[in-house]
Design a protein that fits this description.
Uridine Diphospho-n-acetylenolpyruvylglucosamine Reductase, domain 2; Uridine Diphospho-n-acetylenolpyruvylglucosamine Reductase, domain 3; binds 2-acetamido-2-deoxy-beta-D-glucopyranose; 3 domains; single chain; 21% strand; Vanillyl-alcohol Oxidase, Chain A, domain 3
Length: 503
């Protein structure tokens, strides 16, 4: 998901970082960190090192800025292998981070243990067969910038600052999904470090089970250092950020609703929207905005006409290069890394009624709570991601994945609920609101026959247990069997934080 710039400008106050000043670390983590420091003096950062804070600080949500015992920054798969052996030897807890965008505390951050930060594995290599091998530590705008020099692109993240690793291991919603399926469906090879430190190249031929499991299974199988992806030629796109005046909110909701019907704009597999409906309880403000995208040099794509017909307060939609369009998401206000963030998700069948149902269920709940009105810097948003049939079919045609969507169940919409706010003291209030609001949407959708039982892990909160819905319940047992085969000691489910554990 991504949000228009204006959302960021609503912040009035910024929270101070909550740093534990006198954290005591467990003996296991302390020993592992000493051993890492010994083997990798320039790649290990402990509290007494200058760059320690800098090394762990870079989490997109402030809820995830946790001080680890040390940060280890490998540059190669061999480094990761050695580090994993050390971590296992001392039975230290660890967390793995690529871009640090997942707003789930402990998913890619750790309070007492080793943070393995992969940001220095950052090469893009073009292969003779037309694929690109991409380091997990890159951010998508860097990948696009590099590939565009050759007139190429990959189906990666829409928001330029998001990391390569988490997005590809969780699935991946790209602007090109209607043509290629999940971003993960474009991966042809993984370089992974397994428990025990073995470095393995995983392809469909070499390890079909693990190849499948890595498409959606997040951090349950090992530490992926590099991904090889299919590329495609890409020159011009039409795109930009569009913000509407609050008085246009209903027109905007209707445009999203009609786009999100199977015969609507979503049937154009060259187009994409990233609509954000923002609600500010303290002021009563409701506002909409979206990124508009269409592949090619058509400056007035008909699939987006319902959006461009609404007078916008701000729009820079135009024909330009893909990196230039993606750079719209890199504004300093939005990328301030200054707020606390929480994501939940639900899915509904694709039709206008679903969009209206979400708006009409969610908005009154956001505004009726006296508690939320007092939460400093609080904005809550609804984001719609229409998922056309062509996407689901492309995913299957590419060989499938753990998410395993069923074309017979029809097109649907991934709905993201995300909030941002300033202070830790309000974390519980926001979490409760998300739980209650999500439940209300699901209940209302079930009543109308509009619920679609699928939760996209990269937009979900761990309490939602997204894996249990994959493949209508058939994926999870297989995912567990494969995890036991490649990690018999359960390193990735015991020593790694259990946030997304399959067990
Ligand atoms: C502003 C914003 C915009 C977004 N836009 C999109 C979008 O357009 N499309 C989309 O699909 N999603 C989007 N997301 C969701 C995003 O895909 C997930 O948050 C994703 O997990 C982030 O990847 P990362 O590498 O930055 O995450 P991190 O926070 O570093 O990692 C996320 C999880 O993946 C694991 N992990 C990361 N790298 C590895 C690795 N190499 N090996 C093993 N485990 C690993 C971590 O341990 C952690 O559990 C967005 C999120 C935000 C906050
Ligand atoms: C941590 O990150 C925030 C946001 O990017 C920044 O303002 C702050 O200065 C950083 N702190 C340190 C110690 O690097
Ligand atoms: C969406 O919800 C808001 C707030 O309740 C309401 O004012 C608006 O009319 C709704 N819009 C549509 C199109 O349902
Ligand atoms: C635009 O909106 C109308 C309803 O006002 C709808 O019938 C039409 O399908 C929409 N077009 C697209 C491309 O979404
Ligand atoms: C948006 O544009 C309208 C005119 O189309 C104007 O009345 C309104 O003040 C503008 N709103 C903002 C927030 O700039
Ligand atoms: C996109 O932003 C990056 C980082 O600021 C910059 O290096 C790059 O030149 C920009 N690319 C385009 C096409 O604007």
């Amino acid at each position: 998901m991504a949000f228009p710039n204006i959302v960021a400008s609503w912040y009035t106050t910024f929270s101070l970082m909550l740093l534990a000043t006198a954290t005591s670390f467990s003996p296991a983590a302390t020993r592992a960190c000493s051993a890492l420091k010994h083997s990798f003096p320039t790649k290990t950062f402990s509290p007494k090192d200058d760059d320690y804070t800098l090394a762990y600080n870079h989490s997109w949500s402030k809820t995830c800025v946790l001080p680890p015992t040390c940060v280890f920054e490998p540059t190669t798969a061999q480094d990761v292998s050695t580090a994993l052996k050390i971590v296992e030897k001392f039975a230290a807890h660890f967390a793995v981070r690529s871009g640090g965008h997942m707003p789930v505390p402990g998913a890619a951050s750790i309070q007492d243990g080793v943070l393995i930060s992969l940001s220095k594995i950052d090469q893009v290599d073009l292969n003779p067969d037309g694929t690109a091998t991409i380091g997990t530590g890159l951010r998508w705008f860097e990948v696009y910038e590099e590939l565009s020099k050759q007139g190429l692109a990959v189906a990666g993240g829409r928001f330029g600052d998001v990391g390569v690793g988490g997005l590809l291991l969780g699935g991946g919603v790209s602007h090109f999904g209607p043509q290629y399926g999940w971003s993960a469906n474009c991966v042809t090879r993984y370089e992974i470090v397994l428990a025990g430190g073995r470095v393995l190249d995983v392809t469909k031929e070499s390890s079909p089970d693990l190849f499948w499991a890595l498409k959606g299974g997040l951090n349950n199988y090992g530490i992926v250092t590099r991904f090889t992806l299919k590329t495609f030629p890409l020159t011009d796109v039409y795109g930009g950020a569009v913000i509407y005046d609050p008085s246009r909110f209903d027109d905007f909701v209707k445009a999203v609703a009609f786009y999100s019907t199977p015969e609507g704009g979503m049937s154009d597999s060259l187009s994409a929207i990233e609509p954000v409906m923002a609600f500010v309880p303290s002021s009563g403000l409701i506002q909409g905005g979206t990124f508009l995208f269409h592949q090619g040099s058509d400056a007035a794509p008909s699939s987006l006409a319902n959006f461009t017909a609404i007078p916008a307060n701000q729009s820079d939609a135009s024909v330009r290069s893909y990196p230039s369009f993606v750079n719209d998401t890199l504004t300093p206000e939005f990328n301030s890394y200054a707020s606390r963030q929480l994501y939940f998700t639900v899915s509904l069948k694709a039709c206008p009624q679903s969009v209206f149902l979400v708006n009409n269920t969610f908005a009154p709940m956001a505004f009726s709570s006296a508690l939320l009105k007092k939460v400093s810097g609080f904005t809550t948003t609804i984001n719609h991601q229409p998922m056309p049939l062509s996407w689901i079919e492309a995913a299957q045609a590419a060989g499938g994945d753990t998410l395993d969507l069923d074309p017979a169940a029809g097109p649907f919409i991934i709905v993201g609920i995300s909030s941002f706010w300033d202070n830790a003291e309000d974390d519980d209030a926001v979490f409760s609101f998300h739980k209650v609001a999500t439940k209300a949407i699901v209940t209302a959708a079930e009543k109308e026959g509009l619920n679609y039982p699928f939760l996209y892990v990269n937009d979900a909160d761990p309490v939602q247990k997204p894996f249990q819905f994959y493949g209508k319940g058939k994926s999870l047992p297989k995912m567990r069997t494969i995890a036991k085969k490649y990690d018999p000691a359960g390193v990735f489910h015991t020593l790694q934080h259990g946030i997304w554990s399959l067990f």
